[in-house]
Give the backbone structure.
Amino acid sequence: MEKIRVWTKQHKIVWEILDREGVYHALRAPIKAKAETDFIGPIYDWLAKNSPTAKEKPAGADYPIWLAFSREGTMLPTPDTVLIELEIDPAMITHINIAKWGHMLNYGYIPKDERDKKRHFALLEEWGTSDAKAGTTPFYPEIKREIMDSWKRLFDDSIQLGGPQTYGNIWEVRKEWVTNVTIL
């Protein structure tokens, strides 16, 4: 299969590890430290466990690595980061609808359709809560379970939320895949 070009923006330490060791895996500790709270940790744990390629996760990898399908899609440059350009087999990539992922980062419910969305919002209104409150407190376990069960729709392309923009995940970056590194 023909390879495609993708980009990943990473802290400069990632490039140092990749250059020295030939492979990079995303680890839980640095990501948790960067998040400064444990608010998103369970969401990344869910992603790592439920990704369609979870069984392919190499030893030493805790989380998948985010990819953009365009250089511009890597977000704004930030201090101490590098932009790593890769050429890889597209079969390695798990596509993620970024609107659904953003919804999940706020403990949002991913509805099946408009009717399901209305039903869920009526449930929240009945209980006087929100997705974020239900998802991050111990007071609404049934609603939290419903929210987290809806996340499986992240990988269902027939269910749309927001625009069609996608990003990708892979489990590792290998030095031999690197075609360019830009210091930002």
